[in-house]
Backbone:
């Protein structure tokens, strides 16, 4: 494994980046599935057309396009992620230098857990990113809702200890107040 894990906040190598992260995804949706299969069928169709029209190997087109399709699909499904580069809430990417706390709220009786971030003084949210409306259960300015079944606080804390900067704290907010996650 690369040395990127030993220096939190450093950019990992491309190979190591996949494993040095904590990620929670949205559930599968029919729209995303249709987009994925449509892209695959389109690329295979293009490969067949180019193979016929240009006497070119169609497999080259498929192999060249496949990483882009997989990356697009993973980005569509990602609700929350952190890695050595920073924290991502849907499509909003925040550098570690702007984040002081990750806040987790699990409203009683609700099917979702809320994951949010408190920002350092003077930091602002990037423009153009869709952010959920303020939720009274979440004391952070930016957050996402994820299914409880897909969220594992212990795993999140373990990955944060290993890959996040030392200044980061994970706080659990509930009706009785806030506490640092252990």
Residues:
């Amino acid at each position: 494994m690369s040395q990127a894990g030993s220096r939190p906040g450093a950019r990992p190598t491309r190979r190591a980046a996949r494993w040095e992260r904590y990620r929670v995804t949205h559930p599968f949706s029919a729209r995303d599935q249709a987009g994925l299969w449509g892209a695959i069928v389109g690329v295979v169709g293009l490969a067949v057309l180019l193979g016929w029209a240009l006497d070119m190997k169609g497999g080259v087109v498929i192999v060249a396009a496949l990483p882009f399709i997989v990356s697009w699909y993973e980005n569509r499904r990602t609700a929350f992620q952190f890695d050595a580069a920073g924290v991502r809430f849907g499509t909003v990417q925040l550098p570690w230098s702007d984040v002081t706390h990750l806040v987790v709220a699990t409203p009683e009786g609700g099917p979702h857990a809320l994951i949010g971030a408190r920002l350092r003084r003077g930091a602002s949210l990037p423009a153009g990113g869709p952010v959920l409306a303020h939720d009274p259960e979440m004391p952070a300015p930016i957050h996402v809702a994820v299914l409880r079944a897909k969220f594992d606080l212990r795993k999140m804390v373990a990955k944060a200890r290993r890959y996040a900067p030392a200044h980061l704290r994970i706080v659990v907010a509930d009706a009785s107040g806030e506490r640092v996650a252990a």
Notes: The two ends are 26 Å apart (CA to CA). The beta strands are 21-25, 78-83, 86-89, 92-95, 99-105, 112-119, 142-147, 169-174, 177-180.
